Amino acid sequence: MPLFAANHGTEISLQQRGPPLRAAVSTGMSACMADIAFIGLGVMGWPMARHLVAAGHSLRLFNRSPAKADRFAAAYGGTPADTPATACEGADALVTCVGNDDDVRQVTNSAFQTLPDGALFVDHSTASAGLARQIAAANPRLHCLDAPVSGGQAGAEAGQLTIMCGGSNAAFAAADPLMQAYARMTGHLGPAGSGQLAKMVNQIAIAGVVQGLAEALHFARTAGLDAAAVVDVISRGAAQSWQMDNRARSMIEGRFDFGFAVDLMRKDLGLVLDEARSNGARLPLTALVDQFYADVQAMGGARQDTSSLVRRFS
């Protein structure tokens, strides 16, 4: 397992998806089977929970819309629970995938009442680094890991997510065997909050690339070029990116009714800009792209894919 030293002296470990589940640390759960409370069966949570069931784990399910937990249980197994606290009674681990800081607080305020000492808490929500630090500091009896994901719905469905983790070595060691069910790459990036900070880095990079691609396609059209033909050529050179490979054609065709919603990207960029104001980072391009996404929202594109930035040039 390659190790990379961070500039603050914390070791960062990256593990490719690979061997069978490693033994959990300090949680008392089996290396091959865990009793998991899973909360949040949305676009990302549903396939992640499905992969956990397929890996042999036992799930207690809670969703804000109870009917969704019932449908999941009927299709794949698991036991629906009336409340987060009920789901967590005697569980080895609590895994959450909800919307924002307020959602995480609401879930944990209930769930932590019954989650046993030494249990694992893995939060796959994209939330603030400050909240992750607060939860870990306030709950030393638990192994807390902030673990936001990248890869979108397609990555979740395929079990090929990239997961950025913050927390103790023990928390990561306990969580990694579970996350292997739906991860292509897991990275332990430092103490509590580090996973959320890494997700912010991810969103900063994506925002700049999508805006650059939108401007490039606009320029190609304005110059009288066949934009699709140009992309076919330049995507084999230094301009290639995941966004170009997966979004250029749909951007050219004006299709945006899929993927990661503009509303969610604005939520994430809000977290980024709040953190930057706190730590002094200068993010002029990110702030500008955030305002461009506000333009798309005003155009009625709140639920469209983030590639809808190109609509501003229509």
Task: Give a verbal description of the structure.
The protein is α/β, with parallel strands linked by helices and 314 residues long. The chain has 2 domains: 3-190, NAD(P)-binding Rossmann-like Domain (Rossmann fold, 3-Layer(aba) Sandwich); 198-313, N-(1-d-carboxylethyl)-l-norvaline Dehydrogenase, domain 2. Helices cover 47% and strands 15% of the residues. It is built from 12 helices and 11 strands. Strands 1, 2, 3, 4, 5, 6, 7, 8, 9, 10 and 11 form an 11-stranded mixed sheet that branches. Helix 1 (45-54) runs parallel beside helix 6 (152-158), helix 8 (194-222) crosses helix 10 and helix 11 runs antiparallel to helix 12 (284-298). The termini are far apart.
